[in-house]
Design a protein that fits this description.
alpha/beta, Rossmann fold, pyruvate-formate lyase- activating enzyme, 2 domains, 6-stranded parallel β-sheet, 19% strand
Length: 432
Amino acid sequence: MKVALIQPNSPFLTDEKVFPNIGLIRVATQLKYDGHKVDLFDYTGKKDIEIKNHIQKNATKYDAYGFSSTTPQFLYTTKIFNYLKDKNKDAYTILGGAHASALYNLKQKGYKDFNIDDLENFNTIFAGEGELDNVDLMFKNGWQKGKLIKNIDDVLEPDRNLIDEESYHYNLFGKDTLSIQTQRGCPFDCAFCCGRDIEMYNKVRQHSPERVLKEMDDLHEKYGRSSFMWYDDEININMNRLEKLCVALSKRNYQHRGFIRSDQIVKHPESVEWMKEAGFVKLCTGVESGSDNMLKKVNKKTTSEMNYEARKIIKKNKIHYESFLMLGFPGEGRGDVLKTINWIKNAKPDDYDVNIITPYPGSKIYDEAVPSTTFKNYKWEFNGMFFNKPRYSKEDSFYKGIDAQSESNVRTTYISNKELKKTRDLIDRRFK
């Protein structure tokens, strides 16, 4: 078959051309391996008129058009879908990616949601991983669920010739940096995360150290890059594997950025020494809040003291430390926000980012919210957090986008949305 795979644009981002969608490249790589003719339309950073002209020019040239989409991208995915259908109403369309997978789970539970209905405009709605034996399901009508890939070493290395890799740019301490994913899935159960009920996101599978080194070496040879951003939820959940990886990486002149869990750092402080020797120059973690009560409410399974101790251990090893925090937790009050401010003030992270929680399908906050009339213009509640559910095919849903745009509509029992936004901006002005 002739297949066009489509990466939508994300004009809400401050910079779209940072990291490519490796998941879509993996699907394209598998399709090519299976003998299909595949083109990948990467619309990242493109303007609407350019996208419209290109998709309509190619509207009758392919047997199927496969779209990948996250939830905040779905407005722009829908626009491209409509451009295609305006020119070829019979085009066979497939939707995959995080948005389809999250809403598949809601549908399976029997939930009624207009966001589920909007996906049924596509011929196939595909949930899960799109490689190996799952490919055939993409060409079957209706909702389809791919089998979980248990051994991800069986998956082909993504063929980055399918995109213009050189057009992407992420600079890590003066070095052009490529993204790499060495594991899939996270075993934890944070209420704000949109992957907790999705099998491919909550079941951990890891590449062997040998496979990780081979892919890095291949990328180094092909692109001349020696700097890597690890797109794993956390790199330090398996200490035996991490130690083996770090020993092998210490023999190469590569540098790395990765995400870690603070509790694992506190339990295994020696692991930071391994990562230092391996070339890790930046470690990031989701601190989320300085309030232990808020961390408990969202089932983070860390404490503010753990986060502070992990920060000190990383600092001792002279590795750049970045923390990510949020406001708007269920039932959050001004005292909880003050604890977050004080955590930043006392921990002095080398860098940090503060956002307001945005509930997306697949998260417990979105999925388990109940109808509410407590506050005017807020229709849903989750344990003292109030929000609305956007129609993602028609509305933006990001927080803190380009030019400081914001579509946040979250409040708590005690703090209005306006105050949350004002506080978030005040934190940035005061500490950054």
